Amino acid sequence: MEKIRVELSKNLKAKPTDEGKLGFGEIFTDHMFVMKYTEGQGWHDPAIVPYGPIALDPAAMVLHYGQEVFEGMKAYRAEDGRVLLFRPEENFKRLNASNERLCIPPVDEELLLEGLKQLVNLEKDWIPHTFGTSLYIRPFIICTEAKLGVKAGSEYLYIVILSPSGAYYASGLNPVKIYVESQYVRAVKGGTGMAKTGGNYASSLKAQDIAHEEGYSQVLWLDGVERKYIEEVGAMNVFFKIGGEVITPALVGSILPGITRKSTIEILKSWGVPVSERRISIQEIYEAYQNGQLEEIFGTGTAAVISPVGELKWEDHVMEIGGGKIGELSQKLYDTLTGIQWGKLPDTMGWTQEVK
Ligand code: PLP
Ligand code: COI
After folding, report:
1. What are 143-188's pLDDT values in tens digits?
2. 3-state secondary structure of 270
3. Residues 27, 51 contacting (CB under 8 angstroms)
4. Which of 177, 112, 109, 187 lies closest to 321 in space, CA to CA?
């Protein structure tokens, strides 16, 4: 494995003192991880360097055609002082899956994990202490080649930045209000929906703005062809508890294969809760709501953790779920998942990795 060069910053920043006001992704640490790719040479020169602006040629292809992928993960500070990562190998596996779709050369997942551990270890004093806060980790790759022809690039930059963060939603664990989008679509089968790439998020902003104007936190996307079947929420996968069964849309190619989604399914199965991955329509949800069978809705994601949904708006129908309270299963899943992530519960699944 190539040795990681370390260049320490001479200007260390003041760390935030009020952990209640961290927000999400607003503050960045003193160092970042960088690595270049050059055709013929492969990925080279991995290094930890002072955090700061990067120079890009104005013709860099990422700026014109959006050849980019990213990941989202977290480092957690356990009560006993250990620093934990949650299934980080899954994120690097997904990064390579996104790379494959975006024609970006694959990265060495072991090197990325080693680089991440070294970076987090160096920056561990930035990990906030309050339960529920963490160090959000954002690895990403951009095409840096300067050329205006549309093609896969020959030069890339991989970067990891770190941000001490609080809850993704200002409401914390309080139920969020979600707007079902019937006009705009996020992705279609054969598109880039299953990849974590910036363009998916750029194209979602229009609908998100409309949802915000109506007082909703995020959009629930329907399938791009029939606009009938549930896909996912802006930054999380979605689960429904209907008549005792938990249902989440199957991974059909247009939604992101969330690591929190996968973990949630595994936890539910270990509890013996019936869970199915299948096609589910918004009409079925509405009918379950009308019949009094719709018990809970929650979203799953690294940033969002387990986010109970308290209200769903679909066209003229406003569905209120759980009387504005967190559902029993959502709460139990939140406690279990965060218990494992923050090292409060024994990690019987072998999901955490210590950074030291
Ligand atoms: N869906 C979308 C569109 C996302 O941006 C995210 C966040 O990463 C997720 C789902 C949840 O994925 P994960 O649980 O891996 O964070
Ligand atoms: C994450 O949950 O890590 C994400 O990447 C969501 C992000 C779009 C804010």
Report:
1. 999 999 999 999 999 999 999 998 776 666 789 999 999 999 999 9
2. helix
3. no
4. 177
Nearest to 295 by CA among 337, 239, 333, 250: 239
Question: How many Cα neighbours within 13 Å face the side chain of 184?
Answer: 17
Tokens found for residue 58? 């104005």
Cβ 303 under 6 angstroms from ligand 2? yes
How far is it, in rounded angstroms, from Cα 131 to Cα 76? 9
Beta-strand relationship, 230-233 and 352-355: unpaired
Ligand 2 atom nearest 72 alpha carbon: 3
265 lines ligand 1 (CB under 6 A): no
User: Does residue 292 register a pLDDT over 80?
Assistant: yes
Say yes or no: CB of residue 302 within 6 Å of ligand 2. yes
CA separation for the pair 311, 321 (Å, rounded) = 6
pTM of the model as a whole: 0.96
Q: Give the pLDDT of residue 172.
A: 66
Closest CA to 156 of 104, 93, 98: 104
Q: Residue 356, Cα to own-chain centre: how many angstroms?
A: 24
Instruction: Indicate which atom in ligand 1 lies nearest the CA of residue 232.
Output: 1
Give the count of alpha carbons within 13 A of 115, CB side only: 31
State which amino acid sits at residue 201.
Y
Ligand 1 centre and the CA of 259: distance in Å? 7
